[in-house]
Amino acid sequence: MRRSDLPDGFVVGTATASYQIEGATREDGRGDSIWDTFARVPGAIADGTTGDVADDHYHRSAEDVALMGDLGFDAYRFSIAWPRIQADGRGTPNKAGIDFYRRLAESLLERGVTPWATLYHWDLPQALEDRGGWLERDTALRFADYAHEVADRLGDVVTDWITLNEPWCSAFLGYASGHHAPGRTLGSRSAHAAHHLLLGHGLALEALRDTRPEARVGTTLNLYSVRPAGDSEGDADAARRIDGLSNRFFLDPVLRGSYPADVLDDLGETEWFAENATDDDLRRISAPIDFLGINYYSRHTVASGSVPGPDAPASAYPGSEHVRFIQTGAPVTQMGWEIHPDGMVDVLRQAHELAPDLPLYITENGAAYPDRVDADGEIDDPARVDYLQAHFEAARDAVDAGLPLQGYFIWSLMDNWEWAWGYSRRFGIVHVDYDTQKRTPKRSARWVADFLRS
Ligand code: FCB
Question: Could you tell me if the CB of 166 is within 6 A of ligand 1?
Fold first, then answer.
């Protein structure tokens, strides 16, 4: 496959997130985020590390931008660390934080790389978590205020905005399973966090539109292709539940203005939503967006099982604890995520059916593998090349099938701090030596550069 198999104007970019790459967590007036706190909880992170230094991108952004320019990317999706802009989640923006992202955006534009900014890729100011975090409606209002300040100060150099990254993870890994910051295990109450995140999206969208009418605004959901393991009724119900909580619980409010009743019922949250998710909230959440971002990594094959006992670890699928996720034997990446490129077409189609005119972008897709640096200092990662190639082909298939897919972003530009996995999982097409901060393009990066020129 060649780049010319994709339509003219199709955007090929790469993505990162602030806490995973920036480091410099205590510099220039940045406040603590929930991840600074969570990474210090014993046992929370597989290798016991933090993002204090990460890729030191805060001091090396010029080099990283040059690298993206050299590789030939059209666009770069980065995220803005809210606590760099408002240390406590409120008030006058911190000039040093704004200046950092302004320099970043300007240097990208100089290299012909379009900046795409995500406003929230999980680093909630700790001060807001101390007041209840996303369980509190007020956090959504604070988020809108932050969105306004950022758009006001950076809207001349950034046009493409993503409000949230993967609210499913923020709500259900953050407040149900506790695998992510803030590490709470509240069962179905985590769904209240999901509603406030979505309300935050709606209010931020409004703020961006008011502040910068020329902005293009979307949001990013992590979607999975979900299918039942067998043809029993129980397995069909398991698939309905997991598709419900992972996909429809976010797609429906954003694209249709309602929450799926069956999912509220699974969660036992019908009453709370009837009282708190008002028509006004849903009108805001479903206000027209310019595009939908989808992060696609894998598919889920699910079956019905028995309800786990009281000592079972907290689930990321409250109300559906009996669902079993089946390993089908298909190849997986180092994360254990099944490789299923066709699933990317499935999730694009699912979104498209709800909003036929809405442009779609894959805002993340990529793979972790245990890379080795060979004696010549090269990193040969053929499995990642295969993974990326197969997903570029899926992107072409989606376009050929008439789906309005307009771009694709590789996760990730460079190896970085992979949340609960710390530095033990490498997703980059560029290798990072964490002792020296040396960046070395892997074979996959050279493959991508050739692809972009082809
Ligand atoms: C996504 C996150 C991103 C990265 C990839 C591997 O869920 O948005 O930050 O961790 O997974």
Answer: yes
